[in-house]
């Protein structure tokens, strides 16, 4: 309860605080401190939920169940590590003159607000608030994407804004329809949009309306998940924004969007006695995975490439949740976790690498191992991990997804494997020469913060070999909750 | 292993050591006669060996231990081979030690060593000869093995003793498979023993020679051993051929009387075989080295054909 | 049983210890002394221990355990039975030799820091051990890919060279593709039970179609690792790229894990095979063997030559594998056991002699910094240790008696000779052809080995600098000697060895090779019966040595031992330089001529009026152009098509999402 | 309830649809803004009618909100924008007007088909208008697709918002207040950010033609 309050209050306060304080030399540390406070609160909240089970609060406007509590923890954690990473990164950017004090002020406060919106979206019980939070998440990041004010960044931000705005608008229509369906059952009072209530009565919801609603919600939130062919904003936004933002977009925002989709899916599945919702998600997931794999092999900009890889993995998760069932859901949740850990770690490493090279063009980044082995190893290992090489967790989840697919939708397995193979060839053939070989890079003024990278990779490694029982139990509850 | 077994084994060894060079002499004599030349005496090869042993051996500066070792190894292999092949009797203690495949293996081992030794000095012709020898080898070996396989499929065994004894027991009938095998075997043994049409034992023309190129640097006792080994090889091949295609007269296990007769029979058979060889060498012309692969390939295919014919006709 | 239990624990302990050593290497990443004089010898000892433990575990029944790691639903299952024990022995024996050599081999300043190298090397060893122990799909895949990963990093140790990067990428890519095949195979094997333990897969009985598909997938997946044509392209790139001990380990041991996988799936998990699987394996294997040996004969880089020779040997192993399948399919168990034994024995032999040869090339490389055969020669004088041990390896690789290579070839040919009893007439026709092919291959192997040894160690040095070459150091000699002795012992005591590994056959086929516990008597190897076939290397060796010794003594006794040194005669040609020796290309020429269709050759012939005439010939692998480049092109084309989705116009993007919405709405209506 | 109200609501709904079509075909940017304001007005009117007819008092609130936001504030902001950015040019469309009309009609039919089965479930007096709301959304979507300048796209975006609100009031009597406030806040902030954007774009490309924004692509 108090923990929940803290989880939401701290980043909000941070956002405004950092704006009021304005840009000062210690701003990155303050930012990190707020993030740490958030993380501590999230840990407390998690601890509560583990000990006392699901919590609801503020007359049920908020609730935390096994499904979202681990996402809250994950979000707070990655938020913390990202803030740590962004300290030296942003200082270097400032010295390069790409970040003015004004922009840094914007960056720091928006960073906190962004965390707030995501945590809000995760913890709210009200589908309407959920929508509001998602829209707000877009608004807080859109200015960060264009923060460099380069033509490319402006273009990226514009597309991000318009496409996601339109998408979100559709989600709103879906929400309206949902409410329309709900109020016939729950009556006109305000709690007709509360997920917990909807979940109880989902079987009575009118199928005709719900199918329509789900379509709008899927297409709407799916735009933010980056499902092909709604993905077009994603590579641009990731490539042009500052790297910490790419890291949190890829590692967290996509997760949150997918979280919205699966929340809606649960209701739709309940209302419709067909597999319509699941099949839709499987279709989108498969399409995204395959298309992204082929996109990958044409990339020259490293952040863009990993953005496409995010699309691929999001597709994989969507496919998994679409299949449903305890194992697939478990795998999807596991994949969510390891993907955001590994992908953000990769973006950290990429950020430092790109700063050393002064460019994001891959053919101009060479021989990282020579100039700074730790960045090099970080990037190499991270890449191998994201490509599904054992013993990292990504392999574990992909193994589960693939094996489940073999059982239930054998036809899809070869496609998925094809996509994974192509992605492997595409990404690895580009990353390897960046890490290996002779170098043209130079040292950086600030010691790169690589602890986050290796912490993330370490966790991913652990999840591949050994999933702690409470975590496993947690995933299983969440998976059951998703049906 | 019985005492007489050991005796027979020793007898076979001695017979090989003596008869090998004599066979060579015999063939040379006939070639001379067929070519209207006055022939050297039958024992000429033995005398040559004796002479070579007395000569000191001149060795190239670079020559290594391997070079000095090779002649002994080759000689050993050949003698062992001719002890394995049933010449006089099938009751040989060594028979179980090595079967047809091992026999081929022995020849190959000898070839490996002689080729390496030829390369050791590092002269142009040495390595050239080594290459050609191996070329001949890798084509002839499988062909020879195919021949042996045909026999062993007929007799359901790869042990030479068993092959011979069971072949000699069957009634006299031309097996088509054996006919094919016979042709293949003839071609192979011509090639393996450096006879015309593959190689000319009498030539020292640089660009054509094979065997001579291998032993080009050798002299004295080492050369003697190598020549003797060559004679033994010819002997072993002939005996193998005779044992497979004309197995009659080889003494079976514990058959003393046959053991007495087996030597004259063997000599007679060798004499005939030698004449045949001489005739072949007289009427054929040596072929270009580039044609050799085709020659041996056809021998190989004939061997395979023999195998198939046997499986097809069951005979 | 207790013995096996101990064996399993021991094997796990050794694997764990290897991982631990690897970690320990990171403690002092830059100190060569610590790594070379402490860690690597330690791991060598561990290798011996592993071999001993596994050997003890071989006869006992299977013993399994469950480790506390892995997925919640699917923890690591481990199991040690005769098959895995055999391959563990192989790993231990070869691994120890390589490790002790490596201790003397790795120097500072060559690519990766020694500590990191140590980590990768030992993770590689440990992963291989775990692959052999794994008893469920997840554990297997994890260890399998870990193995590939570790070896990839080892291959790219010297990653500043572009070719090595390319080799590494190619290697990892094909390994990954293979892994995908294996994963699919497991997916079929568990037959929709969702239980991925091998135990469950054993229990399942697949429909013929599914079983065949699973077999083919396994052949594909493991073939990619074993270097089966046309998936072999990575092998001749990766082996030369890697440091020699690593090449030795990859070629000697890692390739065998692929064979282990095939045997495990075909005989253990799939149950009774179908006869045509065997034919497929025979055909593929023979093609691989022939391809490998022919290309080996044409190589001019000593490590590439050995790599291709490895392809050849794996081909032979697969041939034996196929033969075993055929016999098993027709329930001709004794012969199946014979073929299986031939396969296992050849795996063991190849592990020993190929590691030996690769290590020898390593020493040569260190002594001369030269890999191209055209620049070597005459090293027998300067590095006798390496040369003589290599000679043993060469004899073994050429499959000549009394070496170990001959034993396995002998067993294989014996297997071929008893196919008369096969019920299927076509097979009766077919099999002799395969036999002929195998014989041809092994004869060619002799050719290749003469080229290898002769050009490197014999003749006169083709470069002046070779005269400064020094022999290998103590630890390297130790490793070489260890493996060489392995070649000799395995060659001379086949009966004992076969009786040791016979339990594998009785486990997989239900019937061992030994009748009444013996395979021939202690001296004579007679797998089927003394009348049919017998072979006694020891007797042969003794007699041959006696003859040689006798000849030597008699010649000295009756004649003399005088020797005079002089310039080589060479038909009296006055001017003789080292350059006039036959070159590696020259040695390859007859093969190139005979097997011309197999090659993709580019010749540059000088004209008659050339001032400085040069003859240049480059040969390439047709598979590369025939198969892999088209695939790459297809992917490229597809990605170009997909790229059109992202044309940059926001209006188009909006249109996409609009159309998507409309389409999905339609679907919702329907 | 009183049929008059139903007719009124339907009238306003028709007006909204008409305005949507008008925007689709409108070339002049100022006129676009006026049309947008009018649409907001129609929306307010229908909301008020519904509130009046059904006595859902919180709807008055949302109507007030709508009026403030969509009739006053946003058009005003837009006016200032284009005055500051001095963009008064004609807006050429990507496909010609008649075709767009045709497509629009098809969309309307499609929207009605979609809405028909579910609008029967509504207890709202404005149930018939759900289809119109959906049509408005789709039409403004179409408008966004076919406009090649930044400002018209923004307007299209906003009119889509109108359609959504109309759906909210017509299908159900408006969303819960907290949600409506949130939505309104988002729209407002979004509008501000858009303004900032347009300035940034302008100073980068000294034009608001989004043809400049086509650099990021796969080639």
Describe this structure in words.
- The complex is a heterotetramer of chains A (483), B (315), C (670) and D (219).
- Helix content of chain A is 79%, strand content 1%.
- In chain A, strands 1-2 form a two-stranded antiparallel sheet.
- The two termini of chain A are 27 Å apart.
- Chain A is an all-alpha fold and 483 residues long.
- The longest helix of chain A has 36 residues, at 151-186.
- Chain C is built from 23 helices and five strands.
- Chain C has helices spanning 2-27, 32-57, 82-105, 114-133, 137-155, 162-189, 198-203, 208-226, 235-241, 244-269, 275-298, 302-329, 333-368, 379-382, 384-397, 404-417, 425-457, 474-492, 494-509, 537-558, 584-594, 622-643, 650-669; strands at 63-70, 75-80, 563-566, 600-604, 616-620.
- The model of chain C has no long low-confidence stretch (mean pLDDT 90).
- By secondary structure, chain D is mainly alpha-helical.
- Chain D contains seven helices and no strands.
- In chain D, helix 1 packs antiparallel against helix 2 and helix 5 (130-146) runs antiparallel to helix 6 (150-171).
What distance separates the N and C termini of chain D? 61 Å
The averaged pLDDT of chain D comes out at 84
The ordered H/E elements of chain D are HHHHHHH
Fraction of residues in β-strands of chain A: under 5%
Number of strands of chain D: 0
**Which class best fits the helix and strand makeup of chain D?**
mainly alpha
Q: Rg of chain A to the nearest angstrom?
A: 21 Å
The shape of chain D is globular
SSE pattern of chain A, N- to C-terminal:
HHEEHHHHHHHHHHHHHHHHH
**Count, helices of chain D:** 7
Mean pLDDT of chain A: 90
Give the termini separation of chain A. 27 Å
Gyration radius of chain D, rounded: 18 Å
- What oligomeric state best describes the polypeptide chains here? heterotetramer
Catalogue the unreliable spans of chain D. none
Inertia-based shape of chain A: globular
């Amino acid at each position: 309860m108090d923990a929940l309050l803290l989880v939401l209050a701290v980043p909000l306060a941070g956002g405004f605080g950092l704006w009021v304080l304005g840009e000062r030399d210690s701003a990155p540390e303050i930012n990190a401190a707020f993030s740490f406070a958030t993380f501590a609160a999230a840990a407390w909240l998690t601890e509560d939920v583990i000990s006392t089970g699901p919590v609801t609060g503020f007359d049920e406007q908020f609730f935390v169940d096994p499904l979202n509590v681990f996402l809250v923890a994950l979000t707070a954690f990655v938020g913390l590590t990202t803030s740590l990473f962004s300290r030296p990164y942003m200082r270097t950017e400032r010295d390069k003159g790409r970040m003015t004090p004004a922009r840094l002020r914007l960056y720091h406060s928006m960073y906190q607000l962004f965390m707030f919106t995501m945590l809000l979206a995760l913890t709210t019980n009200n589908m309407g608030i959920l929508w509001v939070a998602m829209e707000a998440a877009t608004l807080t990041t859109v200015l960060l994407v264009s923060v460099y004010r380069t033509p490319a960044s402006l273009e990226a931000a514009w597309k991000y804004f318009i496409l996601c705005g339109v998408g979100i608008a559709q989600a709103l229509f879906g929400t309206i329809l949902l409410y329309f369906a709900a109020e016939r059952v729950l009556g006109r009072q305000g709690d007709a949009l509360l997920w917990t209530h909807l979940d109880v009565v989902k079987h009575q919801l009118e199928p005709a309306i719900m199918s329509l609603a789900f379509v709008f919600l899927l297409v709407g939130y799916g735009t933010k998940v980056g499902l092909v062919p709604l993905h077009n904003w994603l590579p641009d936004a990731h490539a042009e924004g500052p790297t910490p933002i790419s890291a949190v977009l890829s590692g967290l925002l996509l997760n949150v969007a997918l979280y919205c989709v699966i929340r809606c899916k649960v209701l739709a599945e309940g209302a419709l006695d067909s597999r319509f919702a699941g099949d839709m998600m499987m279709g989108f997931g498969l399409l995204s995975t395959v298309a992204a794999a082929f996109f990958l092999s044409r990339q020259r900009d490293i952040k863009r490439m990993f953005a496409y890889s995010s699309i691929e993995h999001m597709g994989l998760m969507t496919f998994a949740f679409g299949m449903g069932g305890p194992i697939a859901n478990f795998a999807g949740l596991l994949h969510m976790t390891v993907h955001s850990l590994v992908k953000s770690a990769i973006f950290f490493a990429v950020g430092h690498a790109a700063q050393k090279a002064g460019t994001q063009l891959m053919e101009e980044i060479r021989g990282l191992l020579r100039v700074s082995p730790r960045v090099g190893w970080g990037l190499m290992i991270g890449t191998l991990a994201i490509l599904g090489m054992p013993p990292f967790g990504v392999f574990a989840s992909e193994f589960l997804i693939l094996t489940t697919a073999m059982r239930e939708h054998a036809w899809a397995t070869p496609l998925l494997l094809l996509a994974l193979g192509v992605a492997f060839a595409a990404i690895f053939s580009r990353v390897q020469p960046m890490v290996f070989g002779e170098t043209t890079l130079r040292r950086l003024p600030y010691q790169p913060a690589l602890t986050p990278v290796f912490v993330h990779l370490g966790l991913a490694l652990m999840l591949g070999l050994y999933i702690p029982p409470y975590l496993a139990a947690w995933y299983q509850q969440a998976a059951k909750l998703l049906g | 292993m019985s005492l007489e077994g050991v005796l027979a084994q020793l007898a076979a060894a001695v017979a090989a050591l003596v008869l090998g060079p004599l066979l060579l002499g015999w063939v040379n004599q006939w070639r001379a006669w067929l070519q209207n030349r006055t022939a050297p005496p039958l024992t000429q090869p033995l005398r040559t060996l004796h002479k070579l042993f007395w000569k000191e051996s001149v060795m190239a500066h670079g020559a290594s231990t391997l070079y000095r070792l090779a002649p002994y190894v080759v000689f050993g292999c050949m003698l062992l081979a001719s002890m394995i092949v049933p010449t006089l009797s099938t009751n040989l203690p060594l028979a179980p030690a090595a079967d047809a495949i091992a026999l081929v293996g022995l020849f190959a081992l000898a070839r490996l060593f002689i080729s390496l030794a030829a390369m050791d000095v590092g002269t142009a012709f040495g390595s050239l000869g080594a290459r050609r020898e191996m070329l001949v080898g890798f084509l002839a070996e499988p062909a020879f093995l195919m021949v042996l396989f045909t026999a062993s499929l007929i007799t359901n065994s790869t042990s030479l003793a068993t092959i011979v004894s069971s072949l000699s027991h069957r009634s006299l009938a031309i097996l088509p498979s054996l006919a094919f095998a016979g042709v293949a075997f003839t071609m192979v043994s011509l090639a393996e023993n450096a006879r015309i049409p593959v190689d000319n034992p009498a030539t020292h023309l640089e660009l054509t020679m094979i065997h001579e190129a291998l032993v080009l640097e050798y002299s004295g006792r080492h050369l003697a051993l190598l020549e003797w080994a060559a004679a033994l090889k010819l002997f072993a091949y002939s005996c193998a051929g005779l044992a497979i295609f004309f197995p009659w007269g080889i003494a079976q296990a514990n058959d003393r009387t046959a053991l007495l007769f087996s030597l004259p029979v063997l000599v007679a058979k060798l004499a005939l075989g030698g004449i045949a060889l001489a005739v072949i060498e007289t009427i054929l012309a040596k072929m270009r080295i580039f044609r050799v692969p085709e020659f041996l390939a056809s021998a190989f295919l004939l061997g395979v054909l023999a195998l198939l014919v046997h499986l097809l006709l069951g005979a | 049983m207790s013995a096996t239990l101990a064996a399993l624990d021991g094997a796990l302990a050794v694997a764990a210890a290897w991982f631990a050593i690897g970690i320990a290497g990171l403690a002092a990443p830059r100190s060569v002394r610590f790594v070379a004089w402490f860690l690597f010898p330690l791991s060598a000892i561990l290798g011996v221990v592993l071999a001993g433990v596994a050997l003890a575990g071989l006869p006992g029944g299977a013993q399994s355990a469950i480790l506390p790691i892995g997925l919640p639903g699917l923890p690591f299952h481990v199991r040690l039975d005769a098959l895995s024990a055999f391959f563990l022995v192989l790993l231990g024996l070869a691994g120890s030799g390589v490790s002790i050599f490596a201790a003397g081999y790795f120097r500072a300043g060559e690519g990766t820091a020694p500590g990191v190298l140590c980590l990768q090397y030992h993770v590689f060893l440990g992963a291989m051990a775990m692959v052999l122990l794994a008893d469920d799909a997840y554990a297997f895949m994890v260890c399998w890919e870990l193995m590939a990963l570790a070896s990839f990093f080892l291959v790219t140790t010297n990653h500043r060279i572009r070719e090595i990067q390319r080799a590494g990428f190619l290697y990892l890519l094909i390994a990954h593709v293979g892994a995908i095949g294996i994963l699919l195979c497991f997916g079929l094997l568990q037959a929709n039970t969702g239980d991925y333990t091998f135990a469950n897969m054993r229990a399942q009985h697949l429909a013929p179609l599914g079983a065949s598909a699973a077999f083919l997938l396994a052949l594909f997946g493991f073939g990619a690792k074993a270097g089966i044509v046309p998936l072999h392209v990575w092998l001749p790139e990766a082996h030369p790229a890697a440091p020699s001990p690593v090449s030795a380990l990859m070629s000697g041991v890692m390739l065998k894990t692929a064979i282990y996988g095939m045997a495990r799936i075909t005989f253990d998990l799939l149950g009774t095979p179908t006869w045509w699987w065997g034919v497929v394996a025979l055909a593929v294997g023979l093609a691989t063997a022939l391809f490998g040996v022919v290309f080996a004969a044409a190589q001019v880089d000593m490590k590439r030559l050995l790599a291709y020779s490895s392809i050849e040997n794996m081909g032979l192993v697969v041939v034996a594998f196929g033969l075993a399948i055929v016999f098993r399919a027709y329930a001709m168990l004794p012969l199946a056991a014979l073929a299986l034994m031939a396969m296992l024995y050849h795996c063991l032999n190849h592990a020993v002699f190929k590691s030996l040869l690769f290590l020898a090339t390593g020493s040569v490389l260190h002594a001369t910094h030269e890999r191209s055969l055209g620049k070597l020669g005459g090293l027998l004088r300067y590095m006798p240790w390496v040369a003589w041990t290599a000679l043993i390896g060469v004899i073994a690789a050429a499959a000549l008696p009394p070496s170990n290579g001959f034993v396995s070839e002998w067993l294989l040919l014996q297997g071929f000779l008893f196919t008369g009893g096969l019920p299927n007439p076509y097979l009766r026709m077919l099999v002799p052809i395969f036999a002929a092919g195998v014989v041809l291959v092994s004869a060619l192997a002799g050719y290749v080995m003469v080229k290898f040894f002769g050009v490197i160690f014999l003749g006169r040095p083709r470069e002046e600098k070779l005269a400064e070459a020094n022999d290998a150091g103590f630890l390297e000699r130790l490793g070489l000697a260890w493996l060489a002795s392995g070649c000799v012992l395995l060659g001379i005591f086949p009966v004992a060895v076969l009786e040791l590994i016979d339990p594998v056959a009785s486990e997989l086929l239900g019937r061992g090779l030994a009748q009444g516990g013996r395979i021939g008597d202690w001296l004579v190897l007679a797998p089927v019966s003394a009348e049919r076939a017998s072979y006694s290397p020891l007797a042969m060796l003794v007699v041959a040595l006696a003859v040689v010794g006798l000849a030597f003594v008699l010649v000295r006794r009756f004649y003399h031992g005088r020797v005079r040194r002089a310039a080589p005669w060479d038909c009296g040609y006055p001017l003789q330089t080292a350059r006039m020796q036959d070159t590696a290309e020259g040695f390859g020429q007859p093969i190139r001529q005979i097997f011309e269709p197999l090659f993709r050759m580019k010749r540059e012939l000088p004209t008659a009026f050339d001032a400085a005439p040069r003859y240049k010939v480059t040969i390439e692998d047709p598979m590369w152009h025939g198969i892999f480049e088209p695939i790459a092109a297809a992917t490229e084309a597809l990605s170009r098509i997909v790229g059109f989705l992202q044309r940059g116009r926001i209006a188009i993007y909006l249109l996409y999402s609009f159309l998507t919405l409309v389409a999905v709405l339609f679907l919702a209506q329907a | 309830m009183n049929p008059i109200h139903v007719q009124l609501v339907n009238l306003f709904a028709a007006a909204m649809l008409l305005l949507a079509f008008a925007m689709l075909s409108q070339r002049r940017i100022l006129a676009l803004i006026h049309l947008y304001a009018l649409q907001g007005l129609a929306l307010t009117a229908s909301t008020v009618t519904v509130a009046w007819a059904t006595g859902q008092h919180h709807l008055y609130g949302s109507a007030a909100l709508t009026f403030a936001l969509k009739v006053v504030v946003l058009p005003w902001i837009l006016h200032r924008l284009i005055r500051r950015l001095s963009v008064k040019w004609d807006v050429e469309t990507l496909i010609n007007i008649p075709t767009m009309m045709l497509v629009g009609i098809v969309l309307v039919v499609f929207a009605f088909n979609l809405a028909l089965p579910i609008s029967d479930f509504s207890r709202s007096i404005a149930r018939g208008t759900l289809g119109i709301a959906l049509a408005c959304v789709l039409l403004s979507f179409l408008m966004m697709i076919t406009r090649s300048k930044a400002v018209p796209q923004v307007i299209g975006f906003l009119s889509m918002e109108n359609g959504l609100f109309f759906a909210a009031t017509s299908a159900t009597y408006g969303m819960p207040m907290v949600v409506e406030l949130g939505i309104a806040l988002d729209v407002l902030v979004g509008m501000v950010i858009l303004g900032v954007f347009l300035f940034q774009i302008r100073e980068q490309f000294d034009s608001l033609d989004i043809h400049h924004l086509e650099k990021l692509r796969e080639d």
